[in-house]
């Protein structure tokens, strides 16, 4: 991976259990380009292909803040293992700009 976060999508997600998604959804950010190649991956099309938008930390932070403004109950990072440094940079910027939601890491 490069120095920028590679994000496939970011939206409120309602497919999680109620305690995770709440009334307004879990703010789910799907990363692209996973290098694990798990045979059982339920997000193969998103995870295994490097198709996504490269985001600077400030842009990545804006995604999280937008999900917070939409009322999401948390920020849910899906398949982030290969982009932890990029993700942490964005979280720091978002926290400095007012992000107050809990973060969940999830590998699918």
Describe how the helices and strands are arranged.
Elements: E1 5-13, H1 18-21, E2 26-31, H2 44-47, E3 53-55, H3 57-69, E4 75-78, H4 84-96, E5 103-106
Parallel strand pairs: 2-4, 4-5
Antiparallel strand pairs: 1-2, 1-3
Describe the fold and architecture.
By secondary structure, this protein is α/β, with parallel strands linked by helices. It is 31% helix and 24% strand. The protein has one domain (5-106): Alpha-Beta Barrel (TIM Barrel). It is built from 4 helices and 5 strands. A 5-stranded mixed beta sheet has the order 3-1-2-4-5. The radius of gyration is 13 Å and the shape is globular. The mean pLDDT is 90.
Q: What is the CATH architecture descriptor?
A: Alpha-Beta Barrel
By CATH's scheme, which homologous superfamily applies? Aldolase class I
Stretches where pLDDT is under 50 for at least 5 consecutive residues are none
Biggest sheet: strands, sense, closure? Answer: 5 strands, mixed
Shape: globular
Strand order of the largest sheet: 3-1-2-4-5
Number of strands: 5
Class from secondary-structure proportions: alpha/beta
Beta content: 15-25%
Q: How many helices in DSSP terms?
A: 4
| Helix fraction by DSSP (H/I, runs of at least 4) | 25-40%
Specify Rg, calculated over alpha carbons: 13 Å
Return the CATH class: Alpha Beta
- Give the topology string: H per helix, E per strand: EHEHEHEHE
């Amino acid at each position: 991976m490069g120095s920028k976060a590679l994000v496939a999508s970011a939206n409120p997600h309602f497919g999680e259990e109620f305690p995770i998604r709440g009334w307004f959804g879990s703010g789910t950010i799907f990363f692209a380009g996973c290098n694990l190649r798990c045979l059982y991956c339920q997000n193969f099309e998103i995870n295994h292909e490097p198709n996504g938008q490269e985001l600077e930390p400030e842009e990545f932070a804006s995604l999280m803040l937008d999900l917070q403004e939409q009322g999401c109950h948390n920020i849910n990072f899906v398949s982030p293992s290969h982009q932890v440094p990029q993700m942490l940079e964005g979280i720091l910027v978002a926290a400095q700009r007012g992000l107050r939601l809990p973060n969940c890491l999830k590998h699918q």
